[in-house]
Amino acid sequence: MIRSALLLAAATALALPLAASAQSGFGNSALKGHDTRAPIDIDAARIEVRDRESQAIFSGDVRVVQGNMTLGAAGMRVFYENAAGGNLAINRLDAEGSVQLVSPSERVSSRLGIYDVQTRRITFVGGVVLNRGDSVLRGERLVIDLESGRSTLDGSASSASGAPRVTGRFVVPPRGGQ
């Protein structure tokens, strides 16, 4: 159910016109160059392992930490495969319910999140709020490329005009002579 809801929401968000896209270039992301090979620590109230499906379902205030990035949600489905030495290689994490990402430079909240470890991208869908310092952006779909640090935010159709829009507030720091 979590996976189908994520896929439906992601497909809906992908249908938004590209004209509503905006790069959130207000500072460099601390996630640029994030090491997706670093160990992933998971903490949750419950786990259900579906080994035949190569999935683990975590529930109850799930918290995932990898390097300087923390991802939290009410529930998370982890897709994995068996790797050399009997280890498990995590390919993707699908998060649902009060999704939160925290890094040294930003905070993101949304309804759904997909961390694709293999492509090094994190996608957030549904009521996305991106905070960097006191500045904030809002939209419907955010993609963070961990390789380049580039963030792309697509607008929400809930604007007054009905057209997909990104909204934001940028706090301008005082400058030398002011």
TrEMBL record:
Boundaries of every Organic solvent tolerance-like N-terminal domain copy: 42-149
Region entry Disordered, spans: 151-178
Annotated GO biological process: lipopolysaccharide transport
CC per GO annotation: cell outer membrane; outer membrane-bounded periplasmic space
Keywords assigned: Signal
Pfam family, one: LptD_N
InterPro entries documented for this protein: LPS_export_LptA, OstA-like_N
GO MF terms held by the record: glycolipid transfer activity
Biased composition regions of type Polar residues, renumbered to the chain: 151-161
Lyase listed as a keyword: no
Signal peptide coordinates: 1-22
Record-given protein name: Lipopolysaccharide export system protein LptA
Species, as recorded: Sphingosinicella soli
